[in-house]
Every structure is written in C-alpha cells, then in structure tokens.
Amino acid sequence: MFSSCEKILDKEPRDKLSLADLFKDTQGARAALSGAYHDLLSDAHYQKNMMVYPDLLAGNIKYSKMVNNRLEDIYNAIQTPILSSMNDTYFTLYKELNNINNIIFYTPSASGSDLDKAKIIAEAKCLRALLHFDLVRIYARPFNYTSDGSHIGIVINLKPQLYGDPAPVRATVAQTYQAIINDLSEAIAAFDNNNSGILSGGYKQNYFTKSSAQALLAKVYLNANNWDKAFSTSDELIKSNQYTLVSNADYINSWIGRKPSSESIFEIAIETDFSGTGLGSYYELANTTYRQYAATADITSLYSATDIRRSATMFNNITISEVNYFFTKKYAAGGSLQTPLKVLRLSELYLIRAEAAAEKSVPDFAIANADLNLIRKRGDAAAVNVNLLVKTDFIDAILLERRKELAFEGNLLFDLNRRKKNIVRIDCKSNTCNLNNGDYRLVMPLPADNIIANNSMIQNQGY
Amino acid sequence: MKKILLRHLVVINCFLLLYLAGFAQQKDPSNIKITVNAQEKPILEILKHIEKQTGYKFNYDLSLVNLNEKTSIQAEGSLNAVLNILSDRYDLEFGINGNSISIRRGAKKPVKASRTITGTVRDKESGSPIPGVNIHIKGTRQGAVTNGNGEFIYKIIADKIDQTILVFSYLGMKTKEIILGNQVFVNVNLESESVGMNELVVTGSYTKDKRREDVVGSIGQVSAERLQTDRPIESFDKMLEGLVAGVQVETTTELNTPVKINIRGLGSLPSFGASKSTSTQPLYVIDGVPMYEQQRGDENIKFNGESYLNPLSNVNPDDIKSISILKDATASALYGANGANGVVIITTKSGTAGRTTINVSADAGIATFINQYKWLTGPQYYSLLREAYINGGRSATEASQLSGSKLINTDWFDLTQRNAIYQNYGLEVSGGTEKTTFRFSSGYRNQQSSTLRNDLQKTYVRLRLDHEFSDKFKLSISLSPTFSKSNSLSDYGAVTLPPNLPPYTDGTFTDFLGVPNPLAVFEQNENSNKGFEFLGNVNASYQITDHLSISGTFGADAYQNKQKQYFSALNATGRTANGRLEIFDRAYTSYIGFVQTAYDRTFKQHTINFLVGTQIENKMTDLLSGTGTNFTFDRLRVLSTAGVRSSASSSSENATVSYYASLGYDFAKKYYLNLNSRIDKSSIFGGDKQVAFNGSVGASWIVSKEDFLRNNEILTFLKFRATYGSTGNSRIGNYSAKGLYDFGTSSGTNYNGNVAATPDGTAAPNPDLGWEKNFKFNLGVDFNLFGKVDVTAEYYSNRITDLISSALVPYETGFKTISANTSKTRNRGFELTVGTQIINNKNFGWNLAYNFGANKNKLISFNKGFGSLYSSRDDAAALREGNSTNAIYGYYWAGVDPQSGQEMFYDNNGKLSTASEINSLPLSSTSVLGDRLPKFQGGLINSFNLNKFSFSFNILYSYGADKLIYYSNEADGRNLQNRNQSVNLLDRWQKPGDVTDVPQLLINRSIVSNSSRYLYDVSYLKLSNVALSYKLPEQIAVKLHLQSFSLFTNATNLFYVYKDAGTKGRNGIAEKRFTTPETSAFTGGIKIGL
C-alpha cells in the first residue's frame, strides 16, 4: 500500500523537460542538437564576439562612434580577468559544450534507430570540436608557442560535469588539438556520404556533415601545424567537387540573402522570422544604436582599385560627424535582413591547401601558387599571377590574401598569432596600437570568477 | 525489576518530611507537623512511620485492635489531625501520655455517615476529561484523584455529608469548590487560569493541545485577544509584529503584499540575483492544512509580469482563535522536512454548546501618512537642476532653458496619494447542542491603500461543524471560501516626477516624453486582481478502546487568482504597443491527508501518549497567460480585440509522502520526556536524497513539584526544559535537482524550424542535492514568582547544515552557479517572555506582557571554501564565511572634500578613493558595513481594565538592524533632469570651503551604491497600537434586548523614536525606511451580541 502511495512522488516537470526525460528518445536528442546549433548564434559566440574580436584587436576594425562600444577593452588591449568582454564568451562556449556533452553522453541509451543515434552523436562531436577549437584559439597560445605544443591549453570537456566531480584542469595545447582531431575523425568515420544533417529543414551547409567536418579538420590541422594532414584533408575536400567558388561577378551577392552560396561549406542558419540584434546590426547603416564596427584604412588600403572586395564595392560608405566610414557588406544588415553566419568557405580551403602545400614535408609550390592565384584573381580579375618560390615570401602572400579574403570573419588575430607576426595598427585610436608577437594580451584572460571557483585553475600568464 | 522499582517509589512517598531537630522538646501534639503518604499499607506500618517522625511510641494490644488492615492515606498536618483521620476511619481511640500514645477500640462513638460519590472532571473549554485532578474535603488533605479518563470514585465519611465542601484542584486550572448536597454523581468543569503557565497550548496539527506546564518544546502562542484583530491590518502575519519573543516581522507598507517572518533568525540563505535558495519563511498551517506560499522560480519567464499577492490575507483575522509558533526541534519535528524555519499553527474558532449567539460587528477608520518623505518643490528643483547643468559645463542661459519651468510647483505626492479609508464588517452565529456545535462567520473588508486606485476587498465565509455521533465517533468539518478583489494600479514611482511639470495642459493630461503621467495612468490603465481561495478540512476520530484512538484528516487548499493588466495606448505605458493587455491566471490546488492512531494511558503516576501516522501531500500549480497588443479601440479591453495575441501556460507539481511518530511520557506530571520523528519523501529531490529523516528528543522537569520547592511562596513554579533535534527544509521550488531543458529562449526557439532545446541555466542537474537540515538545540526555563509573574527564558543554538544556495562553480560545468548543499550557518539567541498581572482587583486590572529576542547569525562555511557569492553592487549582499548571512557589504564613505566638492571613499586598504575608483574594484574587496536583521527586538504590551473599560497599548522595539537605502532619491544630480530628489540635496556643496554631506551636483557622475553613506541604523521604538473599548453593563444591555454591546477604538503607529533621528527638515531613516510612507490609522467600531 505504501509503495503505491509513493508513486505520487514521481513528478516530471511540464513546461520544461528534465534531462532524463528529454533523452528518453532520439526526438529529444534531436531537439538538443537543434539547440546546440542554435546556441552558436549567441552574441558571445558567432553572432558577435567570435566574428569581431580577432579583427578588432588585429587591425581590421575601428569604432565609428565614441561611446557605448562593444568589446572596447579588447580594442584597447586593457582586458582584465574581472571585466574582460570575452569572459562571457568563455562561459557561453562551455555552456554550449555542456549541452553537446549531454547529447553525446545520453543519446546512446535513448530509444530510436541506431543509425539516427550515430548521426546525432557524430554531428555533436563536430560541434564539440568546433567549440574546443574556438576556445583553444582564444584562451591559449598557438600550437607552435612551444615546439611540441606542451604549453598550457584549455579544459577539455568530454562529458557532462557535475557539481560533485573533481575540479576541471587545463590540458596542454597538444592534448587539446588531439581531442579536437579525435572528435572530428570519429565523426567523419561515422558519417555517411549523403552529406545531409539529421535535422530537416534549411540547407546541408547549416549542419555538420562529412564534408563540413573535413573542412573544419583541415583548418584544425593548419592551426596545429600538421601541414601534411592539412594538405591531404583540404585536397580531398576540394577534389570532391561539391563546392565551387562563386565568380567575381557574383561575389557581392553571395553575401546577401539566406541561401548558402556555392562556396559555403558551413554556415549557421538564421530563422526566417529572426528580427533580433544580429552580427549585421553592428555594420548596418540605418542602425545608429548598434552600428560601430567600421573598417580601418589598414584593411581597405590593401585592395587594388580593381578588386571586387575593395571599399568602393564591398563596403558601404557613410559620413558620420564629417568623417567617412566604411562598413563591410559581408554582414550589411541585422534584424530581419540578418544573413547566416559563415564559418567555413571553399576559398579558405584553397588558402589552407596553398599554405599547407608550401609547408608540407614535400613542398609543392605549384599547387601552392595555383591556389593562391585562384583566390587572388577571383577577387581581382586584373591581378597578375604570382609564382613565389621562397617560403617566407609565399607565406606572407598567403597571410595577406587571407586577410583580404577572410576579413570580418574572425581570423586575422589567429593567423598573426600562429605565424608569430606582430600586430601593427595604423588607423587606430587605441592607446596600444601595436602588440608584439608573444605579448600576453594576445591571449584572453580566463574569467576571474572561474579562477575563484576552482583552486586548480591556472590563469593565463600576465593577467 | 518493576516491583522493586514500585516499592522503592512507595518508600520515597512514605518518607515523612519533618524537621526532626527539636521534636522531643515539643510536647504539644497539635504543633507537631507530619506528612503521611501511603498506598495500601497496613495501619501498623503507618504508625511506625509516625513513630520515626515524631519520636512518640504507640502502645496497643493487637488482640483488641486490628492494625493489619490495609489502607491508603495521604495526609499532611499536625499529629493530632492525622490521628483524628485514623481515628475516624478505623474507629480507634488515641490517648497521648508523655511520649507514648495508647490505642484502644473506640467506645460508643457515633457512627459517621458515609457516601460513595462518582463523577468526571472536564476542561470547561475543550470538554476533554482531565486526569490527575485532586479532590478533597475542604479543610483536610485527604481525598481522591481522577483517573486517565477524568473519572473518580470517592467514599466520603463526614458528620454532615450534605454540607461537605469538595475542593477540586489541578495546576493550571482555577480551583473549584462545590457543596455536595444530596448529589451522588458529581460532574465538574474546571476553567483554565488565564495567565501564564496555565494556558492551553496548541502544539500542532497532529498532537493534542496541552497545558503550558506539560509542554516540553518551545512554543509561543498568541490568543485572539492578544492578536488584537480589531486593528486595521489585512493579514494576521503583519499582526504578529512584536507579540512573540524571537519572531521578527519584516513589515511592508504596501497593501496585501507578503511580509517576511523570521523565527529565530534566518534559517536559510537569502537569495539574491539569479541565485536560488530555499524559502526562508515558516510553514503556515491552518487547522491542519498547510497554506499556499507563492514562490517564484518554477514558471516560464513569460509569467514574470505577474504580481505576487499574499495568500495569508485570505484568512479572516476575526476567525482566528489562536496562533502558535513552534520554534524548537521538539515543537516542530513532527513537521519534518518543512519545519526548519519554524511552523505557524493557526487554529480557528469553533462553536460552543448552548444558546445560539449572534454577534455582529462593524468598524471603520482612516489612515494618514506619518514620516512622509520630503521632496523638492518645483522652484527648488528648478534651481538645483539649473545648477547641475552649469556645473556640467553649460552656460547659464542654456541651463535655464534646459531646466524647465521656474514657477510650476506640482505636488505629485498629493496628487497621487490620499488618506485611505478602511471598513470591516463581521457576522458570527454560533451555538449547538451537546452533540453538535456549529459556528458560521462571514466578514467583509474594504481597505484602501494610500495610493489612488489601490484597494483591497475581501469577503470571507467560514463554517465549522463539530458533531459527536457517539461517545466514540466524532466528526469535525470546516469550510472556508474567501473572495478577494483588488486594484493595484500604480506603484509609488510617480511621486518622483519632476515637480515643475504641469499635470494638465489645456484640459488634458500633460504628455511627458516616454514617461507616463500618473494621473492619466490612474484614469486610463487597469491592474486588477480577482481571487478566490478555498480552505477546507474534514476530521474524523474514533475511540477504539479507552486508550486507543484513530483519527484521519483530509484538507484541501485551492487558490485562484486572475490578474488583468491593461496599459492604455493613450499614455506612455502602452503607446508603443498601441495598448497592451496582459492576463495571468493562476490556479493552485493542494490536498493533504493524514491518518494516525494514538495511544494514551495513565498508569498511576505514569502517563504515556504514543502517536504514529502517515501523511500524503500533493501540490499543483497551473498558470495561463494571454497577452495582446495593438488594440483597435482603447476601451474594448478583451483579448479578442487585440491585433496581436500571444499566450503561454506553465504548470508544476510536487508531492511528499511522510511517516511520523511521537512518544510522550511523564511521571507524576513532574518529569517529562518527548520523542518525535518523521520521515519525508519528496518528489523535489532526486534519487536517494528523496528521503529525509528528522527527529527530536526533549525533556522537562517541573522542579516546583519536588518536595523541597513545594508550597514555596516566592518561586511558585519552576520548570526546566531541554530539547534537541533536527528539522528540514525542502522548499526550493520543484524539479531543481533534475537538470532541466528549456524549449523557449528569448531569441527564437528553433533552428531551421527544428525545435531547439537547451539546458536551463538556472537548473543544473545535481543528483547530490538534498534537504537542508536544521539542528536545533533549546534550553528553557519557565518560572513564576509570587504566583503573579510568569517568566520564560530560552537559549537556543541552531546549526543549519547542507544549506542550499547557488554556489559559484567552474564555468566548464556549463553553469555559473549550481544549486547545491553548500553551507553551514548558525543562529544563536536568547529569548525572554514576561507576563504579569500587576493588579487584579475586581474593578481594576493591569496586565503586562513583555518579550525580547536576540539573535546572532554566522555563516560557518560556504561552498567548500571556494569563492564567496556576491549580489549586485546595489544589493550589497554576499555569502562570505565568518559573517552573518544578512550582512551588508560595501565601502566606507569618507565624506565630501570641502575643496573639490567631490565624494571620497575608503577602499579596502583604507586608501582615499573616488567613486569611479571604488566602482572598478572587485566585489570581493568590500567589507561588512552592517547587518539587515536586528540584534534584538520585541514588544511590550500593556492592558488595563477599569470597570467596563479596557485600554491597551503596544510598544515595539528593534535594535541594531541596518538598512542600505537605494541611492536614487539622493543621487547628487545624476538623473536630476528626469526625477525629483530628496530635500537633502539643498545642502549640496557649492563652492570651495563648503562643509557638507552632499557633493557638488553633477548630472554625469558615478555613484557608489554600496557605500556607508546610504547606510542607516534602523533601531527604533514605536507606539504601535492603542486601543480603548467599553462594554455596556449587562443589566443595561438586557434592557436593550441585547446580549452584549461594546464600543471600541483603535489607533496604530502613533509615534516613533528612531535612534538615528536625522536632521530636522531633512529626510532621515524615518522617512527613507519605507518607499511608500507608513500610515497611522484611526478606527472605531461596535460589537453587538444578539
């Protein structure tokens, strides 16, 4: 009698679901996966911070207004563990990781087809790799800071962390990259060749598939200085011919609308009814509250007069208080006109293959120069082919082209860091415009609260 | 073993108490005092004891007198008197000669009449039989004692039986004498003595009422009379202020909002920001049914707009018979996992057998403001604003232009506030027969708030029926619906509008850009609540045998409230939405059922009561909301006319299954032992943590019943009590431990049309989350001096472990904070209650009651030593080891620099710093500035009776509490262009050399909201209530065909004395303490018994 009475104690929440209840079946796991993709859109992640701060600190972006600017402490290189604008990013990314780890941890016991479960887990692992990759680039020194990557990396989170679990500790950079590569390799092995996500709706580019996982893996190898693998992985993907570069004529239009362009490999979808503050709001001409990220003369001056990516064509021009500012058209509008956030594009894969070709154990400058020229000439039809055979010259050319092609996409700081280049900002109003390679401020501090809550956590040097 | 023990006890009882020294010299047998107390002993043995006591020797011839007859005798008195008793009873004659007493058979003595009488002694109030009542013939000590059922058999032997006076006495009851007459059956009802140790105490829903003397735990009880329900206060929780030692009421000045009651300090951690912690409030139980506590946290964020009302106001104060506050472990352990913060037991009135009585009452009154905040007038405001602009670098002309009107002087306070009116009507019909009693009551209360368009109307109905099917089977039913309606249109905010704005322009409401005109809001908006609460319970009990009974109670609480809020498109509140309507519908239902068996038995001097029971409780909340915008026509305020509509629903549920047992034992009403235990299983916690075991042990000793204190005329009563045990607290909201996934976020809920679920940031999974445990230790002493002054003093030390709070956790968990059992705190304190009837004449009485409670709180450990938890700067709270959990954290203010006119502060190293320097310091560098809870507080209640007049006044005091006032009304120019400020700003710094507390006015400035500048000492003493009533003499009332007629008046909050008095003409703590100023209410009414 008592036990039947006590059945009353089995209560499940109704307008939220408990963890155990959600992962009862694959339908719940899918909802969590959908949440994991959706989470990438947070302001602290791709909707702003991750796409802006590498360009802001490294010299592509300046402010078009005086007050109420976002990420100002980063621009001025005065971020502190207590107040850093990037603290929220640290927290947000681990919050996303928690959801992803729940998916990977609980989905195997959910009811549903094994095929579906494998696919859900594979996609989740790619997302986990992406998050660890973002974290290690923001909060740790680049791979080549020590010869074997044995310097301090980040906390690798591979399972849900509970309050009672031992306090997390930071792994080395090499271990971190290995974890990322493991996740991606396992996912690639598990994916089928259909190249579509488990979730319906949108486009294949909105999900991690075998191809988009390969593209990310190539970029990871490049950052881990594993040139041979970076080459082979990007080579394989390019040769699969699933993606094609958009033409010079279509370049500007490829940044408008919500349909992925032919060269987009992974981009984060924006809902049809989206009308909030998106990344585009910060570049949007009409939006005087948020508009602030103007292009520096440092970047606009890099384009030739015939380059489609130059200020006259690829930038909106506006005069504010008698000063001319240029705002990129890559994310020209927020609100209901916000475009999907592009994370991996084929042009970057060409640049990865080019750089890896020049660096790999058996350098291949033919492919390297061909790829470089392909991207240069796609942007500037009038450009003359180059054929650089001295590695340092070639790498400088690659870095220049990467800066021109991938501006405002969250790459510049990481490229300079991994190539041990100094930051030199000329069109700059910060008190600290130049930062030498190795400066502690090139790596973001860990949030102070996180150090307080964990005695075994080590703060980044200098903070 | 048992036999030996009994014999031993007999010997102790037979011990003849006598001052042996000097007996030999005393030859007058009527002066020799002896005590005899024997049960079933041969007369011979008794005589031997007398020999031992007195030194006299008895001479007898056993062939002539039979001294082997067994007898029981309890006597105390002179040797003569004792011998007389023996002589009467056994027909013996005693002759005293020197040191020897000869015994002979009595010769020709007239045979005394004898009669055996039987009867029952009952408590007049409750009708329950009283065991252990002493019955004796007046002038003797000889007599009988009632058994466990209150019954007695007594063989009376006396000369003139008809004229014999029988005395019935029992501690705590008024002694009653009756002349026997020709009665054989004598049924007597004893009345309890009204003061002190003798009152009947409600000890809980599960246990029987006990006399104060029998109570082991710590219980503070307030009778209806003491609660002074005639006061114009809408809910009983607010009425409790200052009445019970150790019970602190954090009052509010807003109508029908919940107040906080802290019993012996805070038993849980305060919550701040997004942090989640358990309820710090006591459990309210009315006639066995726990009352609804509205707690935030479970519902969807769409319901954040809903107002919170006070469900406790749905109990008509006039229906309350008594309120018991269970403070220590023994008192509250039977409430197990919900008793940690104390339990408040409300008992409602029931009918009494006899003539049907009808009482009607009506009272009304008016409230005026006291300690009203002083705002700048229009011209003052203008000149200050102008000065602030000039200080900010504007030219004089520009500043004048920007500062608005120089002449307009609008008193927004006056336009939006009023002297509130209060009305209360009551009807009570009660009566019944021996078998069935009933009481029906109804009340209507209409109370205005001081702010216009804020009022509250309540209609109460309560029906109570008690029926005895037989001596064994009893049933009691109570039903109580309450209807309430209220308007709470505007908050107090409007009084801060700049005073140089005109309320009307050209016959219409002036429209201020973006800021609503309060007068337009009053006329055009709507915010109303319609509520219904139903409390009901059925209780049945069956007496299986004389000692064994079974009872069951089923109770239900249904609470419904519908809130309708309309923001009109005609004013700034609803303009952008083009009219916005929000409807919230809250439905809560709960039921509770408990079944228990009780075993009560008295074996001679041993009384045992044992109780075992099980309880099931289930609570459900369902919420529904509808929002509409874009209204086509402003006065059609229904969702169907809204252009855009949205809706939301939310529901939650929790359940508890419990098992409890209680054992009470006493020996000779002198030594008491009490054991309680309870097991609770709750749906709130996960896995193994579902089960909580709580228990307590308590003992008490009535020292004054020991022989050495018996009949002591100074210390008339003395009792020691000690209790220890645990209670728990599970009220953290539902599902907290499970880890939740949210399906709705503010930035869209889908990814490519796929529903997106993400972990709820405030509900991290924590399978280890368990109950809070409150280990309570209590030491108490009750004593009475001269039979007049009742004193209760108690010391307690409560250690609360596994306290639930948000704990900072490594971000890698995916959460910033997690609800966990993180900390240990301790509340220690001392309480004193004194009650005395200073004068008690027929025509004049003066009764004084005083209480005092001191409490000290300390956070012993927090979050395994990892980071302290800090609230926002403005809230200035933190959980930091070693300090009180109510401490106020901030920085010390260093005053205003007379040269620069800037505010200066000390940082944590004592370095002088500016406001912006201080604000850039981390919160961990703050230090403790004060404490929100008082060091001690209490009340003094005096009541007088003079003929038919009675008069009473209450003085309440509180010492040592601090309050941090939010800076917005004294922001030194910040925001000055948008809002009015305190008159204190008139003392601002203007030129170098000015020595003042108010810095130079600047519109752009940083403010240290957690500086000691805004910290005030709230120690005060107030005359909280004065009441005067007059009762028409009965003879006159009868002539008017009335049973009774009385008139009463009442005045609240007559004056305050603050320790920190402030400066005259400026605002000090008195004015700043409450946002809406306090009121002083004057009421008067009549009560008529038909």
Poorly predicted ranges of chain A: none
The level of helicity of chain B is under 10%
Q: In whole angstroms, how far apart are the ends of chain B?
A: 63 Å
Cα-atom radius of gyration of chain A = 22 Å
Class by SSE composition of chain A:
mainly alpha
Which percent bin holds the helix content of chain A? 40-55%
Shape of chain B: elongated
Mean pLDDT across the residues of chain A is 94
Give the topology:
The complex is a heterodimer of chains A (463) and B (1090).
Chain A: H1 2-5, E1 17-18, H2 19-22, H3 26-39, H4 49-58, E2 61-63, H5 72-75, H6 87-106, H7 114-139, H8 173-190, H9 210-223, H10 227-239, E3 264-268, E4 293-295, H11 297-300, H12 311-314, E5 315-320, E6 323-328, E7 341-345, H13 346-359, H14 365-379, H15 391-406, H16 412-418, E8 423-424, E9 434-435, H17 448-452
Antiparallel strand pairs in A: 2-4, 3-7, 5-6, 8-9
Chain B: H1 2-14, E1 33-42, H2 43-54, E2 57-59, E3 70-78, H3 79-90, E4 92-97, E5 100-105, E6 113-123, E7 134-137, E8 143-145, E9 151-158, E10 165-169, E11 176-179, E12 185-190, E13 200-201, E14 210-211, E15 219-223, H4 224-227, H5 236-239, E16 247-250, E17 260-263, E18 283-286, E19 289-290, E20 320-326, H6 329-332, E21 343-348, E22 354-369, H7 378-391, H8 396-402, H9 412-416, E23 420-432, E24 436-448, E25 454-468, E26 473-488, E27 504-505, E28 508-509, H10 518-524, E29 526-543, E30 548-567, E31 580-603, E32 606-631, E33 642-667, E34 671-682, E35 691-702, E36 715-729, E37 740-742, E38 750-751, E39 754-755, E40 758-759, E41 772-785, E42 789-808, E43 817-840, E44 844-861, E45 869-870, E46 878-879, E47 887-890, E48 892-896, E49 903-906, E50 912-913, H11 915-919, E51 927-931, E52 936-946, E53 949-959, E54 962-964, E55 1015-1017, E56 1020-1031, H12 1034-1039, E57 1044-1058, H13 1069-1072, E58 1079-1089
Parallel strand pairs in B: 2-5, 6-12, 18-21
Antiparallel strand pairs in B: 1-3, 4-5, 6-9, 7-8, 7-10, 10-11, 13-14, 15-20, 16-17, 18-19, 20-21, 22-23, 22-58, 23-24, 24-25, 25-26, 26-29, 27-28, 29-30, 30-31, 31-32, 32-33, 33-34, 34-35, 35-36, 36-41, 37-40, 38-39, 41-42, 42-43, 43-44, 44-52, 45-46, 47-51, 48-49, 49-50, 52-53, 53-56, 54-55, 56-57, ...
Helix pairs in contact in B: 7-8
